[in-house]
Amino acid sequence: MKSPRELPDTIPIFPLPGALLLPRARLPLHIFEPRYLAMIEDCMKTQARLIGMIQPCEGPEGARDRLHSIGCAGRLTAFSETEDGRYMITLSGASRFRLLREVEGFTPYRRAQVDWAGFERDRDGAERDGGFDRDRFLDLLGRYFAAQELSTDWSSLREAGDELLINSLSMLCPFAPEDKQALLEAPSLATRRETLVTLMEFALRGGEEDRLQ
User: Fold this and answer.
1) Which of 39, 41, 73, 91 is deepest in the core (most CB within 10 A)?
2) Residue 57 has pLDDT above 80, yes or no
3) pTM
4) What is the Cα–Cα distance from 26 to 167, expressed in whole angstroms?
5) In angstroms, rounded to a whole number, what is the distance separating the alpha carbons of residues 28 and 56?
């Protein structure tokens, strides 16, 4: 699916705060709500098997129906069903999209008309980050993980390619939903890495407390 012509104009969308999917990355999901069980079943009947992950806008309860304008579609590449009828799935990031409008219909889940233009890079090969100082980045990451009391497989991180490392950390680190959106909207891998560094440094300086000084 490298051309917008090969991508559907309308896709099901899954608004999930804090859940970030990036191109060529994988997002495991545990599906149990009836409307999203129906979405998975309908998705598997389509040729593209795409689901659009998108962040709801922050705000009062009623405002959460509003969605950010950019999301990322993932192809359903793994599926299993539990004995009690829940689904365990994996979405593989295909391309970001711009939300044009929601589509009214008879499905219990939300659908939207989307535009794939402007995200051609998502559908090419893995990106490289020419200015990536891996040693300095991993040093910062170690301090951030220690402060957050997180653990990881450091040998795997050191061996991972630039894109896999930066995108995986963007998806997995416990940032606020609006920060996840900023990582999603980064126009290049280098910009995403810079945003990721800024978020980790901000957390190490005390986060919200730093704003009050």
Assistant:
1) 73
2) yes
3) 0.89
4) 10
5) 19
Amino acid at 57: C
Give 155-185 pLDDT, tens digit per residue.
888 888 999 999 999 999 999 999 999 999 9
Residue 116 token pair: 């794939």
Instruction: Determine the pLDDT at residue 153.
Output: 85
d(C-alpha 22, C-alpha 113), whole Å: 20
